[in-house]
Amino acid sequence: MNTSIEKTEVYLEGLPEDLIRKRLEEFSTIRKSNIKAYLVGKRIIIWDPDAGSILYKNGFFGKPLGIRKPKPVKYDVPYELSFYDALYLLERGAIKIRQNDKELTPENIYRIASEIVDDFEAKYRVYADLRDRGFIVRTGLKYGADFVVYVYGPGIDHSPFAVSVFSPNTKLRGQDFLRAGRLSWSVRKLWVLACVYDNSVRYLVFEWNKELST
Q1: Do the domain assignments include residue 27?
Q2: Which residues are catalytic?
Q3: Quick one: pLDDT band at residue 3, thresholds 50, 70, 90?
């Protein structure tokens, strides 16, 4: 498995200006839509299908419940936001989140998410950094990673990156590198190790060399 720090500048430097403008327009649409989400147990639900559809169509935030491979069309079902999606949108004033009669703050969501999601602080920092660069970020659990990253979005283009988050709270072993490298290679993705220290995120991009592994 080969690694390159310099390739980060090529792979993760951000997107073309026209696509960044599109992302800003999408976010403006979300902000104008007065979307309300609700904390129900350990899940964040959007009961209004129209509101959920706006979020999914404009940046692939959340997902329609019960739809295995959703497309950017309206589904007449509730939508669910991940804690990453919810906090990102809430911090930027794009949605409101309520629990019963109480309106929740970003601090509330951060505290709740940290109790549910292991190492949430570091993972959210990476999620937010990639979103700010203009990428679409989705869960990568089925690929053995924390996130998968798209340029255009699921169902539109192939995700080129599988991202695992490394922080001072994370322990990495040699077999972790081998497992992640082999898995990402098998699904035609580059494996990216996102290293979080203090207030910075640094990305290491790995390419699996099958010949060297034999």
Answers
A1: no
A2: 150, 158, 189
A3: very low
